[in-house]
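Hey,
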Amino acid sequence: MFGGIVMNHSIRTKLSRAITNLALQLPSYTSERRLAEQTCLTLLHSCNTLTNLTQIHTIILKLGLHNNPLVLTKFTSTSSDLNAIHYASSFLFSPSNNNSNLLLYDAFLFNTVIRAYAQTAGSKFKALEFYKTMFSYGVLPNKFTYPFVLKACAGIGDLNLGKMVHGSLVKFGFDDDRHVQNTMIHMYCCCGEGVEFARKVFDESPKMDSVTWSAMIGGYARLGRSMEAVGLFREMQVKGVVSDDVTIVCVLSACTDLGALELGKWLESYVERKKIPKSVELCNALIDMFAKCGDVDKALELFRQMSFRTIVSWTSVIVGLAMHGRGLEAVSLFDMMIEQRVAPDDVAFIGVLSACSHSGLVNKGHYYFNSMEKNFSIVPKIEHYGCMVDLLSRAGLVKEALEFVQKMPINPNQIIWRSIITACQARGEFKLGESISKKLIRSEPMQESNYVLLSNIYAKLLRWEKKTKVREMMDLKGMKKIPGSTMIELNNEMYEFVAGDKSHNQSKQIYEMMDEMGREIKRAGYMPTTSQVLLDIDEEDKEDALYRHSEKIAIAFSFLNTPPGTPIRLVKNLRVCEDCHSATKFISKVYNREIVVRDRNRFHHFKNGVCSCRDFW
């Protein structure tokens, strides 16, 4: 018992020891209140359960320390560590804490509450509520307040809200604080269209360290503006600002998006040269970059060199192998992960199911899917069901895929239906594909890909009038097919081409090379897949349209600018079309070039007239 309060043995023992120790250490003139304060602080420091916290709360009230700023701040901090900030705030700001105690609330206490809510999922608005409450209590924010408030704004993603907070911190004169500036850059980048405001803050800041640069580079990378991220990194190098591991991780993310393997290799050597500490996050980013930029063997090598691996390390390699069509290796690695008692998460299962899908491992796919809930208590999500439908569809089991969809405990999404439609096209199930496509159009009348799928089915059936009608429907709704683009990295520069592109200063030579390629692969047996062309036009015009697809332009450009026999790596924003896939197989054989293409779904390794995807992608 302590003043009539019942405590468990652990708390009672700690309290007794704390009081004894403090009584011996404190001078004789120290007041009893000071002793009580230090005792509570000691208990809070060692508190590690919510039960203990509630008992300490009772002690605080009994000792009359409910308006002691030091104790309250530590109580709030401990509550935050225990994910119990709601408990602390209900005590701090309850009606029982009347107005006579308001002057005892300070900025440090409010900052602790705001930070806790800003870091708690689903509580960002509460952080902003307490920011407003701060003013009603007559407490002014300081420079430590705004990074927490800005972080909450970033989580909400509301640009106007972010602007209002920006205006407030300018009013209080904190806009020149570097930590505030860095958090503001991050906040604006998280608000989507706010990236230009982020760049303005960046341009107006002193930019004396790598943190500010990393914030802006990372913002560009997260928004998919990877060319700008790489450009800013190069500017950072010119200005002599030393990068840290955080900067490198951000730039590696941009490299991954662009497929910029050579820049990624340079970054790896930069890390070695500058002796930048290889954190687990940095190693994982390198693995992910190499896997998704086309060198999965290097990714495997780095993975094997790691002394400590996280689930992200394993998943990055498994997903990388899956994307390259090396399903058996991916499955083997997944099994090894289980043997080493690394518990898979839902992302790891997406990786292994995807590997089974790309490699036709139907039985393995069923086994892993069934083991999710049975062995690991992971309830399958729509993405896992989608992988299974894709697996069955790729294996030609269209009817089985449909039965699987009908038995799903959750409603199938549009991606699942599109997998079945694509399989219908590949397996000649055109009536079924047409029926599902029409249903998709009715449910998603403004989704352009649904119309393209139906259009492709009519092209396969040579029903040009219906195909043209679909195109007219798209035009009427203001929809246009996303233009295909292909990127290639040469001599430390990124080049992007779109269909029919003539903007490059080598255009004349590029089109001459394309004409030569067309003649040579025709001699080798290539036949243009003219059904891929959207409109009903003459066969000769269709062939001409096919020759101008972006990947063929990029291949011709690379032939002009690389020595014979050099491997070529391309990144395409869409799924590779049937004709370009066929043509690239012939090009790889005729010109004795290995051509690696990363499209929206996977990697295609073309070599000696064969593709790693085995003609189903």
